[in-house]
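Please, structure for the following, as tokens.
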Amino acid sequence: MKNQDYYEFIIITLIHMVYGPVLIIVLVLLVATVRQVNQGHIGVKYRLGKYVGMREPGWRIVVPIFESMRKVDIRVKAVDVPDQEAITKDNISARINAVIYYRVVDADKAVNEVEDFRYAVSQLAQTTMRNVVGELELDQLLSERESASSRIREIVDKLTDPWGIKVENVELKDVTLPEEMKRVIGKQAEAERERRSVVIKAQGEVEAAENLSQAAGMLSANPGALHLRTLSTLNDLSSDQSNTVIFAIPVEILRAFEAFGRKDN
């Protein structure tokens, strides 16, 4: 009886020694076959190196050695385009940087049609930005920045469409000019403000002259109007005792004295 119990103990021990590691290996393989695809991502699955389809978010089975899966982020990405040295149409050098917003709409094309779509989009945006800036004059670039951004977005979106990329927006963040050009632009702006000041002043003088002409015509039409106006002005000056008043004799009074002198003669 004791021998039988001893044999059973040996058999059970051997079973544990053999099946224990096997069970652990099986559990490890089961865990390795389960891949999690998070929300906002999509899985691109391959079997023996061939594309077999895309996998939605969730737990997915991927057989080790035979299958593999690459996760692709399909959320909107903001990529900072580095500073680019560009020359405008009127041969002015400027440093420009921008930010581009895009997202992956077809993970199959983004993975299989281009080696690294992130790097490709960044390089394409840099080249397109320099080309678009070269088509614009400096004044257009500074005043029509939104138009230039839209132009860059249209070109990049069209060229990245075969890669399964959708460009949402492109924004020019900053346009940096050389110090010499900044001084020239400052002088130009100052000259423009002076020109506007002179024009406005001249327009004011023209309007004042027209009003004075109309006032003179109205006063000359009434013989006593100029005298009344003179008395009104003296009344306004009398409110301030510090003023020195020079009394101007109206022309009507001089003419009246002249008329009296003729009668006496």
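The chain has a mean pLDDT of 78. DSSP finds eight helices and eight strands in the chain.
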